[in-house]
Amino acid sequence: MGAEIQTLFPWIAAVLGLAVGSFLNVVIHRLPRMLQAEWKAQCAELEGRAAPEEPRYNLWAPRSQCPACGRSLHVAHNLPVVSYLALRGRCAFCRSPISVRYPVVEASTALLFAWVAAHFGYSAAGAGALILTAFLLALAAIDADTTLLPDDLTQPLLWIGPVDEPGLDLRTAAGGRDRRRGWLSVPVVGVLGVQAGHRQGRHGLRDFKLLAALGAWLG
Fold first, then answer.
1. Is the Cβ–Cβ distance between 19 and 105 less than 8 Å?
2. Half-sphere exposure of residue 183, counting CA atoms within 13 Å on the CB side?
């Protein structure tokens, strides 16, 4: 049974990756908009005025919609990769083009999940690596779109990281000597970049949080 699980695990992970990739598309699209709505509400509160009424909008509601016509999609329209190919990359209702990024994220997640599962095997390390992969994919896509690294992703990644390394306490994981060196490298690189006149040398505080999370997972 153990050998059979190890053999099937990459295939199971690939199928799981398709489903996770579909959910990551929701996170990538909606989380930045949720943050913008939250910032607007905070600004209104600071200015002493009532926040504008907004319809319910989170990762679960409303149902997936076409960005062009606003029609709610059916279950058959949300099948990872398959629906995109069947619809030839267009909305089933208004025939507007659908971004190719949706199937790319889904397929990439499936392929990476299969590779991770084959590399680590059916184990706690394998499960942890799948979680890390999903978080990093979402962060990379959101960063590419908005240059944001949301705390909603980096902070959970930081705190669940030590769980994947038995015997490692949270204090060591978040602030151990090697981690502190990693944190220090970010402002050093940023200062050097600014001194050299390169705008890309500037880093935001969220880069620190992501680096701390990576330190918790990777050491």
1. no
2. 15
Within a 13 Å sphere around the CA of 92, how many CA atoms are in the beta-carbon half? 15
Phi-psi region of 202 (alpha: psi -120 to 50; beta: other; left: phi over 0): beta
Task: Say how far apart CA 147 and CA 134 lie, in whole Å.
Answer: 18
Q: How far apart are CA 85 and CA 58, in angstroms?
A: 27
Rounded Cα–Cα distance for residues 199 and 195 (Å):
10
- What are the residue ranges spanned by the domains of the chain? 1-130, 149-219
The pLDDT of 173-195, averaged and rounded, is 53
Residue type, 117: A
Mean pLDDT of 184-202: 54
67-121 pLDDT, tens digit each: 889 899 898 999 999 999 999 999 999 999 999 999 999 999 999 999 999 999 9
- Give the pLDDT band (50/70/90) at residue 145: very high
In whole angstroms, give the CA distance from residue 186 to residue 149.
15
Instruction: Tell the residue number behind the tokens 């889904």, with chain if given.
Output: 106
**How many residues comprise the chain?**
219
Contacts of 47 (CB under 8 A, 6+ apart): none
- Which amino acid is it at 42? Q
Lowest-pLDDT range, 25-39, 53-67, 78-92, 113-127?
53-67
